[in-house]
Write a structure and sequence with these properties.
The protein has 1 helix and 10 strands; from the N terminus they run αββββββββββ. It is mainly β and 155 residues long. The protein has one domain: Beta Barrel (Lipocalin), CATH 2.40.128. It comes from Rhizobium deserti.
Length: 155
């Protein structure tokens, strides 16, 4: 069996490797989170976040991302200690190479017995700054953003 080799598409994910300070009012009461992202041989990328939830309580998150050449899609997952749902992603990078849009289905925040389509984006503004946002699909097909986090590379 031949081992997979990083594709050109993996270079977007490689930019995430390192330690980051995260500011997201929706995720905390103003206290910064941290995230450390590492590469598994340039094929998979694992980002572990940690911080305090609003109202107190430690939380940990794990984001996995890779590129599947057979699907011609970015793929991944997200789990967090604050919920029981695993978010499974497929997506693509914008033509300008700055934005990875990831699509998933999960519990509807307003009606937990229903599901909803979500889009999460990782947007690089430069090599040391990125934005992560989450949006829910509205009945008219548009996306309504409900969360945004700003990442600054440490060191």
């Amino acid at each position: 069996m031949q081992l997979p080799k990083p594709q050109m598409e993996h270079s977007f994910l490689q930019r995430m490797v390192g330690a980051w300070e995260v500011h997201a009012p929706e995720m905390s009461d103003g206290a910064p989170w941290t995230e450390v992202c590492r590469s598994l041989q340039g094929i998979w990328f694992v980002a572990e976040g940690s911080g305090q939830m609003p109202g107190g309580g430690a939380a940990t998150t794990i984001l996995t991302l890779g590129y599947d050449p057979a699907k011609n899609k970015y793929v991944g997952s997200w789990i967090g200690s604050m919920m029981n749902h695993i978010w499974v992603y497929e997506g693509e990078v914008s033509e300008d190479g700055t934005t990875l849009s990831l699509y998933t289905v999960g519990p509807d925040m307003a009606e937990p017995d229903k599901t909803c389509d979500y889009r999460e984006q990782i947007i690089f503004t430069d090599d040391n700054h990125r934005i992560f946002n989450s949006s829910a699909r509205q009945p008219d097909g548009s996306w309504k953003q409900f969360m945004e986090a700003h990442y600054t590379r440490k060191g």
